Amino acid sequence: MDKLYNWVKERGPICLGLDTALEYIPESIRSRHINKEDQIFAFNRGIIEATKDIVASYKVQIAYYEAEGIQGLMAYKKTLDYIKANKVPVIADIKRGDISKTAQMYAKAHFSGDFEVDAITVNMYMGTDTIEPYYEYLKKGKGIFVLLKTSNPRSGDIQNIKTQTGEFVYHEIMKLLDKKGKELLGQSHYSPIGAVVGCTHPEDGVAIREYMKNTFFLIPGYGAQGGKPQDVVKYLINGNGGIINSSRGLILAYKKETWKGLKFDEAARKATIEMKDTILQQLKLITQG
Amino acid sequence: MDKLYNWVKERGPICLGLDTALEYIPESIRSRHINKEDQIFAFNRGIIEATKDIVASYKVQIAYYEAEGIQGLMAYKKTLDYIKANKVPVIADIKRGDISKTAQMYAKAHFSGDFEVDAITVNMYMGTDTIEPYYEYLKKGKGIFVLLKTSNPRSGDIQNIKTQTGEFVYHEIMKLLDKKGKELLGQSHYSPIGAVVGCTHPEDGVAIREYMKNTFFLIPGYGAQGGKPQDVVKYLINGNGGIINSSRGLILAYKKETWKGLKFDEAARKATIEMKDTILQQLKLITQG
User: Fold this and answer.
1) Which of A242, B167, B210, B239 places its Cα 20 to 30 Å from the Cα of A254?
2) Are residues B59 and B251 in contact, defined by beta-carbon separation less than 8 angstroms?
3) Pick from A66, A101, A154: which is nearest to B127 by CB?
4) Which residues of B touch A100 (CB under 8 A)?
5) What region does A246 belong to: left with phi over 0, alpha with psi -120 to 50, or beta?
């Protein structure tokens, strides 16, 4: 998380999501490559080359690669390798969650070997014992982002069930994470246990930020899912402490009227700069206000 | 679920879990195969050949294969192909859960292509919209098992938080699933939306069974995790309506004193028969009592 903090400080809080579906890939790439693996990787490489100096991290959503089977996962591995070669922090959006013995396997899978990344997203509906196997990796510089309040429309179905104390279910998880996170803090300001807090439900997000001062946020929901710049800045602390993810809004920029005529990678760069400028502008407004 | 119902009727309720870690593989296989992919697949093929006439289904826990990277996932694919060639129902224990757009990708990944299976496990902490993308596949004969009350020691951390109505969080999910399941029932007795209900918390399991008459259960936690035969039978209805999973208890039987000297596949067969007989015996006791 310290690594992410420093990257945000230098580059601003943009996390670019590589949710690369086959149908997102332009004809120019498809015509040059026969197999899916090469098509997906060529697209991702183009996006990474065009944005690697202006983002704080990449988030790779594994579902899009699993959907293409072995070839998709080969492209997934190549994409991770390419990001790591460029030394940009990379988060695997895998949302895994399982019993301790199985979580050990997920930790091995995503914190070592073919699919090694800096941080992963995890789901702790199954309980605190399902995230403990990750702790040994956290001590070695890895990070986890636990799902707290997600960005999808029906996220409240379970997360916002009212408990006996009048709070929401996600509050209970927040308290568990905050406590455990503080134990693992060490010398740094941010704990290696981060939280996923979507920016489409700002009332919940602001309450969570208020409570969790030492927790780094992965903030999905911006753009295509409806999250707004004036809301998302409230999730940060002095412009840091979180990364704001956009996936389709950036990688599909070339399909938008605004960037018409640009190549997919040029459009992604323009859209990323625009997103970053908009957010930095909002941050200025609140610090001045 | 109808398919599973019929298999349980013919074969009894055993689901064999292929949680194949590299260190579980005996020297006899390691010495014959150089790479991980071949070792894992040779082990699984041996287990499948020895048990395919006495189980109702196989459950393959993907984490163990992800942990070995691309080679592991190649072995995963081969294992699924081998089970399908033998026409035994196969469940992918993947516990995925994500926003609608991403869940569409997971559905594509596990209900078609390289990794196609009959049913998958899913986590709906993120809300009802995260399971909707699976419905179109359910209409074509696929199934999902949603995590309700899991078998791990700390499963109560979130699942058993008391709500404002004095019930548990998992009760809310149970009601949502039961309602949706009934809508999708069609001509069959069991809905294509099943539930994961671990047998290590029998008081919760019995309450869930009481409420959900049309829901097929995937029941983990037997054996190695502490689930007992006298408890697990209470999760069934007339000996059907659920499959009881055991993984390490069966695939590692060759390491136990009882089966000493037997080959890993022979030991797995003996252990599977013993588990089945023990459970059928208990079922007899309760129908007679």
Assistant:
1) A242
2) no
3) A154
4) 152
5) beta
Query: Are B150 and A108 inside 8 Å of each other by CB?
Result: no
Q: Give domain status of residue A288, yes or no.
A: no
pTM surpassing 0.80?
yes
Considering only residues 225 to 244 of chain B, which have any Cβ-Cβ distance to chain A shorter than 8 Å? 225
CB contact under 8 A, A152 and B99: yes
Put simply, whether A110 touches B (Cβ < 8 Å) is yes
Chain A CA closest to residue B176 = A157
ipTM of the complex: 0.96
- Interface membership of B124 toward A (CB under 8 Å): yes
Residue A289 burial by Cβ neighbours in a 10 Å radius (0-12, 13-18, 19+): exposed
3-state secondary structure of B214: coil
Range of the domain at B62: 2-288
For CA atoms A154, A159, A160, A164, the dihedral sign is positive
Domain tally for chain A?
1
Interface membership of A172 toward B (CB under 8 Å): yes
A to B CB pairs, distance under 8 Å = 188
Per-position pLDDT tens, chain A of length 289:
888 999 999 999 999 999 999 999 999 999 999 999 999 999 999 999 999 999 999 999 999 999 999 999 999 999 999 999 999 999 999 999 999 999 999 999 999 999 999 999 999 999 999 999 999 999 999 999 999 999 999 999 999 999 999 999 999 999 999 999 988 887 778 999 999 999 999 999 999 999 999 999 999 999 878 999 999 999 999 899 999 999 999 999 999 999 999 999 999 999 999 999 999 999 998 877 6
Q: What CATH number does residue B200 fall under?
A: 3.20.20.70
Chain A hits for B124, Cβ within 8 Å: 157-158
Tokens of A289: 């206000």
The answer to whether residues A50 and A16 touch, using CB atoms and an 8 Å cutoff, is no
